[in-house]
Amino acid sequence: MRFTRTIPIASLILSILVLWQPTLADSRSNLPLEREEKIPSVWEKNKCLGGFSSSFSLGGELNNPTTYNLQKLRNLRDTLKKQNPALVTEITVSFQTGSGLQTETYYGVPLWELINNPKAGGGLKPGNSGLNPKNSFLRQYILVEATDCYGAVVAIGEIQPNFEGKTVLVAYAKKGSNGTVVPLINEGFARLVVPGDKAGGRYVSNVRNILILSAPASPLKPKYF
Asked: Is there a contact between 22 and 29 (Cβ–Cβ < 8 Å)?
């Protein structure tokens, strides 16, 4: 008899709990709104505001990280020309933009010299060589970032003289319509110039960071056949 009476009592208790759950939900929904305040995300704290760049940082896998402004970049160009009068510091390029084909003559410092010359970056530091250290510098690349977080990458192999040897320029001036050399205005004090590119997507304006990095090790496990 005691066993048969226990079952209806247990069913009654379960029914009361089920009916009580909405009441709990309602009470939680009535909590003060202040408790639902959102914590600012990392993105909100580190927004890229854009605008004119007056300097850029050179760093990453580099012996002499430093910061450049317009005068310091000009001085570096003059120093490099004294070291090697044949050094190319002026290039004329044509590239597609949203408004059509654009042709400009730019003046500046070759990216390879900015990274490797003892008077500048002082050369590459060894990066992530992966499983095979042979020619490990070919795993390295340069990330160029703008003040609005726009970025583009140039591989070290593109500018290394023994490989493609392309003269990518960090420009600080260009030839004006009257033939005189004028400072960059709408592009910040410095912009990246990548000759040979058909489109101007890597012509990063308002440069704020030039970072040397390495590609990560492959996530694939070695297979032997």
From this structure: no
Residue 41 has what DSSP assignment? Answer: P
Residue closest to 162 by CA, chosen among 122, 112, 123: 112
Contact between 54 and 70 under an 8 Å Cβ cutoff? The reply is yes
CA angle 124, 128, 131 (to 5 degrees): 135
What pLDDT is stored for residue 129 in this prediction?
75
User: 65, 83 in Cβ contact below 8 A?
Assistant: no
Q: Are 143 and 62 in contact (CB under 8 A)?
A: no
Measured distance CA(137)–CA(39) in Å, rounded: 41
Q: What are the structure tokens assigned to 52, written together?
A: 């004119």
16, β-bridge pairs: none
Taking residue 196's Cβ as centre, other Cβ atoms within 10 Å add up to 11
Residue 216 has pLDDT above 50, yes or no: yes
What gap in Å lies between CA 185 and CA 176, rounded to an integer? 11
Of 153, 146, 185, 120, nearest to 50 (Cα)?
146
pLDDT surpassing 50 at residue 42: no
For the chain, what percent of residues have pLDDT higher than 90?
61
- Give the confidence band of 132 by pLDDT, cuts at 50, 70, 90: confident
